[in-house]
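Note on ligand handling. Small-molecule inputs were canonicalized before submission; formal charges were left as drawn, and no protonation-state enumeration was performed. Where a ligand contained multiple stereocentres, the stereochemistry in the source SMILES was retained. For zinc ion, this procedure yielded the string shown in the input block below.
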Amino acid sequence: MSLPSLHPCGCPKCHSRKPHPDRMLHRQINLLASRLDEQQRRWFIAFEAMRIGWGGTQRLAQITGLTPPYHPARPSRTRGRAC
Ligand SMILES: [Zn+2]
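Structure output:
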C-alpha cells in the first residue's frame, strides 16, 4: 500500500530560504492531514484553525492547500431577531 504524497506547505515562510520555527509544525500538519480520510482531515484542519484563532482559517489554507469551508456548518446568526 502506498502512502499519499505529502503536500508542500504554501506559506511564505516555508518558501523562504531562512529557517523558521514553524516549518516543522507545518510539515507535521501536512503529514497528519495526508494520513486522514476526508472527514477526519476537515475536522483536524478546522480544529487547528480555531486553535490559532484570528487568521487561522487563512493560515491553514496556505499550509494545507485546502480551501474553506472545511469546518462543519455553524449555526447562523439571526439579525435583529431574538431566538
Ligand atoms: Zn509553512
